[in-house]
Structures are given as structure tokens and as C-alpha cells.
Amino acid sequence: MKKIFTLIAMSALALGMQASIYIVGSDPFGNWNTNVGEEMTDNGDGTYTWTGQIAGTIWFVFADGLTETAGDWDTFNSQYRFGPSTGSDQVVTAGNWTSTQKQGNGSGAYQFGATFEASDYVITFDLDNMEFMIEGDDGGGDIRLYTVAGTPASLFGTEWDPSNSSNDMTKQDDGTFALTKYGVELAEGSAIEFKIVGNRDWGFAWPAENYYYGIDQTGVYTVTFTFNPENEEVGINATLGEAIETRTGDLFVLGEVNGNSWAPNVGVAMDTEDENIFTTTITTQGENIDENDGIGYSFFSFTSKLANDASDWSSIAAYRIGALEDGYPLTEDLFGIELSLGNWGAANSFKLPAGTYDLTVNLDDKTLVVKNNSGVEELISTKTISSVRYFNVMGQETTTPSGVTIAIITYTDGTSTAAKVIK
Predict the structure, then answer these.
(1) What is the DSSP letter of 84?
(2) How far is CA 351 from CA 170, 227, 268, 373, in A?
(3) Separation of alpha carbons 262 and 272, rounded Å
């Protein structure tokens, strides 16, 4: 009796040592969560099966374990993942055995095109021979899935990403496809650009040029994309549900001014008496060296609202206002002149060399006036500045001008000049 019990215990231990095999991937396999997957049935002979319904194009890998938390790709890839031996994505078809291997680096997944209408499939995984087979209806290479990929990220979640399943279109009764996004905040002067992508492959994309749809009023929109595979007709409809007032009564200088870095929750508050004309004085350090002229520049724009944290750019997207084109250079010949600002929602920046400047923004006219308050006009010159050193009246070098200071400006052509700075 003792011997029989021992054999039973050893058999149970052996069974307990059998590997668990999971399918991890897009729906219905857990939507690429490393701690969620479809466990396959252990047949006891080294093979495992999964039976269920699949619709459209899917991506997946196999795994002999799952992580404790979602998104732990390092652990998942290094310890559990099985994938294509090529190390890149591989298209598989029904009815054929496909080899697989323990990857260890997380590259590549399998792509399978099922019929659009959910159909029954059986996936068999042979652990001993390191291969698998899908049984069921094969789409035969036809396009079965349509996805919208484009910009901005506030609408699509990610930019120009055909693999984002949240942007998959739904087949309609008339054979066309549609995707509707609700509660999307879009700014005046911004635009939606997109393509319809077949099978999440850029080789199938419509139209040939990006579809462009401009927004003429800031607000919260319901956006519907449509596609007709028969004639490849692409459509979009953006319905304004609620207008947003972008002028909040405040205005902030956003960017590399007064020691700040680019962050949506940090800005220099401008002064105003009528919520129309805003003024302030800023100092720029010239953090960015231009390779063409060797001059250091700082970049900035404006916003009427600040975010609550440093990563929340989307919450202030509609409240930003800036230059007509990104990196617009503010040169000496433009000082004192009313310069046009872009529309609300524009993220384009201005750039200035190191110095101190007075800024005046008129929100009614959407204009900016910049005046040099550095006390050294030569700081903005047609010559390329190599270095600027400051000395007080005692001849001692200082990093920051204070009181009466002498600035020694050296140019890359070897010449230099001195100027009095009064601060």
C-alpha cells in the first residue's frame, strides 16, 4: 500500500510539473496585458489546445507563464514568451503547422486574419516539437480589419499608430466601416489628419495623401470616421457639442524663460489690468545652440491655463497660443513691432537669444510686441557671438549683471566689443 501511495504521489508531482501554456495578444487574448492571457487546455501528451471565436485580424504570442502585474514586459519577454524564429512579425494561415521558439527578447508576434464575422477556431500548440497550428476559416489574405491612424494624440490616444486597437472600425449593415470618438477637445486652428489602414499594415492605407480636416472653433466634439471598401471613399464628420472659452483671464509664458523648462504646469504669470493687454519681463539663458550661427536660443509660447501636473499637455492644448510657425526667430529688426500670433490651440514657439526682454500680448488683436531690456543691443547682432563676460566697476567678473556692469562681447571672427549694462 505504501508503494502504491508513493507512485500516486510521484504521478501527481509529475502532473504538477507540466507547463501551463497561454496565448497572449490582441482580443480575445487579453489585449496585450502581460498578466492576462487565455490558458490553453493541457492534453497530457505535450500538446495544448484553445477553442474559441476570433473575428478580424489578431496578433498573438505564446507564453509558459504570466507576470504578476500588467505591463511587466521585461519579465514577460525574458522568461515566458514564445514567438517567431525570425524575430519579426510573421503572418500565419489556417491549416499549417508553424514553428515557434522561446524568444527571450520580445521581438515579433504572429498575425492571423480570421473572418470578420466571429467564427470558431482551434489553436493547437505542440510543446515537444515547438510548433502550432490554427484550424478554422482562413481569410485568404483579404483585408478584414480597418483602423484609423492619425493625429492629434488627444483624439487617437497615440499618433499615427495603426496597431492601436482602440481605433479599429466597426462594420456597418451596409458593408461600410465606422469609428466614433466622443468628448474630444479640439482647438480652433488645429486639424485632424488621418488615414484608414487595412489589417494594421501601412501597405494598405487610404487616401494616398493624408486626409486633412481643419477645426474652426475650439470645443468638445463628437468625431465619426467612415470608410467604404468598395470605392475606397474616406469620410469624417466632427460635430461640436460644447464650445470652450479659451480666454481664462490669465496668460502665462510657457517654456525656457526665467529658469523654467518646458512643462504644462509651469509658466510665468503675465500682468494685466483688463484681461486683454498682458505684460511681463522675461530672462532667457540661450540653452539651445544653433548649429548654423552658433548662438544660443531659448524657446517659449503662451497659455491661458496651466495643467495640474508636468505630463498633462492635453489639458491645456486648447488654451495655448504662439507663433505662426514653430521656432519663429525674434530678431532685432522685429523688436517693437506688433507680431501676429496664431490661433488658440497653436503650440508653435518663438525663439530668443540670451537676454532680458519686455513682452506685451494683446489677446484681442492676437499680437506680440518684444522689446530688448538687456541693456546690450550687441547681444543680438548680425555677428555670431562666441562669449559674453560681465565685470563690475571694481573689475571683478560676475555671472549676472547688477547695477552698473561692463559686458565684454567676443565674436567668432575674433573681434570684441565692450558695452555698459545698467540693471
Answers:
(1) -
(2) 45, 42, 16, 16
(3) 23
Q: What is the dihedral of CA 40, 43, 46, 48, to 10 degrees?
A: -20
Reading the block at residue 223, the C-alpha cell is 468625431
Q: In what order do the strands lie in the sheet with 191-198?
A: 146-151, 191-198, 201-214
Beta-bridge partner residues of 351: 299, 329
This prediction has a pTM of 0.47
Distances, alpha carbon 112 to alpha carbons 95, 106, 147, 196, 364, in Å: 12, 18, 16, 20, 56
What residues form DSSP beta bridges with 97? 133
Task: Write out pLDDT tens, residues 371-422.
Answer: 998 754 444 444 566 677 777 766 777 776 666 566 676 767 676 655 555 4
Burial class (CB in 10 A: 0-12, 13-18, 19+), 381: middle
Separation CA 275–CA 293 (nearest Å): 38
SS3 sequence of 284-342: ECCCEECCCCCCEEEEEEEECCCCCCCCCCHHHHHHEECCCCCCEECCHHHCCCCEECC
| Residue 176 grid cell | 461600410
Residue 7 sits at φ, ψ, to 5 deg, of -65, -40
Q: Are 167 and 197 contacting, i.e. CB atoms less than 8 angstroms apart?
A: no
d(CA 165, CA 142): 19
What is the CB neighbour count within 10 angstroms for residue 95?
Answer: 9
Q: Are 206 and 234 in contact (CB under 8 A)?
A: yes
